[in-house]
Structures are given as structure tokens and as C-alpha cells.
Amino acid sequence: MSRRWAWVLFVAAVAMGALAHGRDRFDDWVDATVLPPLTVETSVEVLDRNGELLRPFLVADGRWRLAVGFDGVDRDYIDMLIRYEDKRFWDHHGIDPVAMTRAVYQAVRYGRVISGGSTLTMQVARIIEDGTTGQMSGKLRQMRVALALERRLSKEEILTIYLNRAPFGGNLEGVRAATFAYFRKPPNRLTPAQAALLVALPQSPEARRPDRDPAAARASRDRVLARMARDGILDPAEAEAAITEAAPRGRHDFPALAAHLAERMTETDPVAGIHQTTLNAGLQAELEDLAAGAVRDAGDRMQVAILVADHTTGEVLASVGSAAYTADARQGFVDMTQALRSPGSTLKPLVYGLAFDRGLVHPETLIADRPVGFDGYAPQNFDGMFRGELPVRRALQLSLNVPVVSLLDALGPQHLLTGLRRAGAEPALPGGRPGLAVALGGIGVTLEDLTRLYAAFANDGVAVDLRTRPDPTEGFVPHHLMNRAAAWELGDILRDTPRPAGVMGEGIAYKTGTSYGYRDAWAMGYDGRHVIGVWMGRADGTPVPGIFGAGLAAPVLFSAFDRLKPEADSLPPPPPETLLVSNASLPQALQRFRPRGELVADGPRIAFPPQGAVVEGDLLVVKVRDGAAPFTWLANGAPVGQGHRREIQIDGLGPGFSDLTVIDAEGRAARVSVEMR
Fold this sequence. Notes:
Elements: H1 3-31, E1 45-47, E2 53-56, E3 64-65, H2 75-85, H3 97-110, H4 120-129, H5 136-152, H6 155-165, E4 172-173, H7 175-183, H8 192-200, H9 214-230, H10 236-244, H11 259-268, E5 274-276, H12 281-295, E6 302-310, E7 315-320, H13 348-357, E8 366-369, E9 388-391, H14 392-397, H15 401-411, H16 413-422, H17 447-458, H18 484-495, E10 509-514, E11 520-526, E12 530-538, H19 549-564, H20 588-591, E13 592-593, E14 605-608, E15 614-615, E16 619-625, E17 631-635, E18 638-643, E19 647-651, E20 656-663, E21 669-676
Parallel strand pairs: 1-5, 3-4, 8-13, 15-21
Antiparallel strand pairs: 1-2, 6-7, 6-12, 8-9, 10-11, 11-12, 14-16, 16-19, 17-18, 17-20, 20-21
Helix pairs in contact: 2-8, 4-5, 4-6, 8-9, 9-10, 12-19, 13-15, 13-18
Protein name: peptidoglycan glycosyltransferase
GO cellular component, one term: outer membrane-bounded periplasmic space
Pfam families: BiPBP_C, Transgly, Transpeptidase
């Protein structure tokens, strides 16, 4: 080999070594790049059962930044973005030498910037560092960060950062925030016109904002569409049609469905970024619209709340805390599904159900609706009238006060509280000890509490795990409130309760209530699958003269069922053990119920022995005054005598407690309990 060739080989070897050394040093330089944090705070989101957005929250810096994955964005938009911004994105390593050379050449030739040389990766580098492109040092830094990003992340991961961080005008960051603000939809399905606008906006997000300069926004969109047609991404006819599509001229508000519930969920778990719920966004929107309409003409302080649940699963499907989530005279920021209020007559079915369960009465038992006193407490009916004796079924349907208080007196008020708590309610009791007035609403409960109770009625008398999160509530116990026959009897009675004028509501068991002083109007109802509760009144608790549940809340209840489904699901058939007979076929003890201490004008009263007397011996003399002869005498429900005399001797009662009853010729009765020793 000649000396000349040896020299050439030597120079080549030195050059290759220098290049290799330079490459290694370059690789070390790139690898040593310190990257800024690649993750950023995103908006907390509350989602419905299908993942649909109910309500997002601003991040701490006041921006809307809704997280989205690569697969959550319309692929046609991504193809348009890459073609317009960086057509060799999938091939380069962060810097596109061809685009960079072209940009430099055009700038030198024309004396101004004609096209940019930045790749999408370089744009991501600028975004994550919040940098600029105006200085050479800034451009070099972007190039270095872009090279480092390409070595540490996949192409899809780099694009995902862009999709979540690109600016779209104002306080909008990321494509998902932009699509909700400009199109009221997520970015998974976009029209070509919508996709083109999203490609154009990040280039100059403030100058092209549709809410500030809709003409500039549309012009930039149309330029993207023209380029896509030229480059074959869009068919010319498709591009032409997209150009005729109206462009947004402003921003839409972000969804704020179930706003009260969303607030509660984020307060309960402030760390979670995503809150999944059991709600149905479509139904929630329907019922929020219903709520707004229900108070529109009812005065500027009238408020409403609605709760809907599937009682077969316990999942809440809609939760409307007020007519509107605003700081107005209605106090719309207050969640009235959680507010303690007087339930009025809505607890009456619980009293009757417990009485059925304990065998005190049957739906066909006759019960007295007459003036009666309980240690100075003399309940009156809503209309001030008394109806004499009538079946228990009818007494509940008419929501009479005297019969239900008489039953609660026999049951004991504490049993009502226990039933509420076993349903999952948390009643607030004024004074600490329950009295008979709790049957008529003398207690504090929430709409959620009552919905739990009525869900249990619908669920064969068993408590339901009412919840707004998908997972079962930890520690929940399905307590039994009453046997399934008693629960069925309740539903059978309430299903035939008279409806408000003009309302059908077939197949729905329901009960209304009005609290003392006209402060609260209630309507609670259920069918074979769903339970709905409605409250109306003023959030501050002041009276609304003339309101009552049947006239105000019940129409909203039945409208809510109409919006939920086209027809009611059938209530279940009676359990085999249900006693389906007339009053005459009932056991004698169930044919008639009389309260202790009944005070009927001119009716019979047991003069001796007094209530609670302790009698020594086997022979008992019982005396009656007032009332019309002849008299029928009963001991523990069994007849022991009949005649016109006002006293009778009863023998053979035996030791222990006995109930003594006298019934006069007009069917009026009196009863006392005594203890024989």
C-alpha cells in the first residue's frame, strides 16, 4: 500500500473516531438533560355510571385541564394535527432536519418567518417548560428537551402530553377541555370542521379564540381544512362541506350536573382525581330541568329537591339538591337532600307497617277515628273532622292522624325510631325522648333518610344499601324493618291512594306529607324497581301558607316517574303467608282496634277497674258508665258476656295481664289493662 493511501486511511480513521466520540458526547449531553415534571394537576372530575362527565372542577391555577388518554381522542383529529404540524412526526427523533432546513431557507430568502421548523415534540418541550421561541437559546433548549423526550417516551406518550397541555384560549388547556367548552362534547368523536378548529387554535390561542374573534377562528379553521383537502387527508367534497359548517362563536359552560353531590364527594375524598358515581347523567339533566320548572311560578323563595334510586340495587340514579346551584333567594347552594326537615305524614306507613308486622292490626281491621286523649295529647285530623270507624286501609289512604297515633301508642314511639334507624336513617329527635307526635312529623329527617325508608318498604321490608358510589357500602347490614307480608300490605294500600287531579300514576305506591306550619311538602313513591322522593318548601324553613304535599310535591313525583320510564314496573304479588280476607273473616282480635283511653262523647267508659290496676284474687268486677246498652264484654279479645247491665263479674282470668273491653250498642268501645294476682 502506498504512503498516500495509508495517510488517507489514517485521516479517515481519525475522522470516524472523532465522529464517534462526538456522537457519544452528544448522546451523553442529551441523556443528561434534566426534564421538567411531565405530569401536571388536572381537573377533578365527577362522572356518571357510564363515565359521562357530570361536573369538573378548576385546577388550583384557575385553569380547565381535563385529563384525556390517547385512545380517548378522535383519530381523525390526530391525523390532521400531525399532517398540519409535523408530518414526519412518526419518523424523526424529536427534530426534523428537513423542516428545520426549509424554515431557515425561507426565512433567509424572504426576510421573515414563512413556516416554523418546530416538531410536535419541540412544541411539547416548550409547553412543559412554559418557554418561548423568540430567543435562540430558547430554541436550542427546546431541541435538547425534544431529543430527550423522544428517548424516554413513546410517540403516543408525547402526543398525550400535547393533547392534555396544548393551549386553546383563555383558561382552557388540553383538547378535552376545549371540546367541552366549544362543542359541549368529549373529543372522541369530532366532525372534520371541529377537528380542524382544534388543530388551528394552539398556534395562536388568544388571537383565534372563538369567544373573542369568531371570524379569525373560522378563517384559521378553513385554512386547515383547505390544507387537509390538498394533502389528501380529506376528500375535497368533505372539506367543502366542513367549511359550510357553523363555527362556534363563544364558550359553553362546563357541565355542572349533580353539583351538590359532586361537592360532597370531593370533600369526602379530596385526594381522588376521578369520582365515579351511580348516577345517570341523562336522567339527572331531565330532573334538574323538572326541578327548575316546578318552582318557576311558585315564588322566588320556593325550593325543591328530588332523589331517585333503584331499590333493587340501592344505586342512586339522580340527586337534585335544589332547583339551581346558585346563590339566590332560594338559597340554591344548600343541598336539600341532606337538610333536616319535619317529615309530616310520610312516617305514617312505617307505623302501620310495624303494626302489621306485630299483628296489632290488618288492613281490613276497623279502627276508630274519634276524639281521643293520650295523657293530655289529643291529636286532630288535618281537616278537623272525625270519620268514626273505618278500615285501617282507608285510614292510611286518607292520612288520618287519630288512628296512626292510636297505633303508635300501642306500639311505643321508640319502635318507630328503631325502624327508622334500621332502614339506615339518622333521625334528629327534639328533646331527646320520642313522644306520640313523631307519628305526625315531630322529628327531623332528610330526604335521603325518607328515600331509604321507602326503599325498604319496596324491598320486602328489608333495608337497602342506598349509595351514590358503585361499590357496596362498607359495613352495611340489611336489617329487617318488618316481615314481607306487612311490606306488601303497605304497598297494596299506598298503590290505591287517591291521586292528585289530572294525574294517573298507575302502579305507583305513594304517600304525601305536610309538616306543621306549612313548612315542608313531601311526596314519596315507589314501584317494582324504583323509589323517588320529592321535597318542596323554603330552604330557610319559613312557612309557605297553603302548601301541602298532595297539591305541590305529588305532581312533581309523578312527573319524575314519567321522565324516568314510560310506565311503572309492577309491584310484586303477595307473599304466600299474606292474609287476604275481609274484615268478617279475620280472627276476632283483628276485626276491631280500639285505642286505650278513648274519649268518645257519650260513649262507654270503664269506671272500674282503672287503667293499670292490680287486682288481688280470681274474681273481677267490671263497671261501665255512659254509652248505650246493650253492652258486649270481652276479656283478652274473647266474649265473656252481653246484656243491659252496667257491670259484670268475670272469673277465671288467671294471674298476669289482661285486656278488658266493653262495646256499646253503637259500636263504641273502651278498653283497660289490669294485672291479676
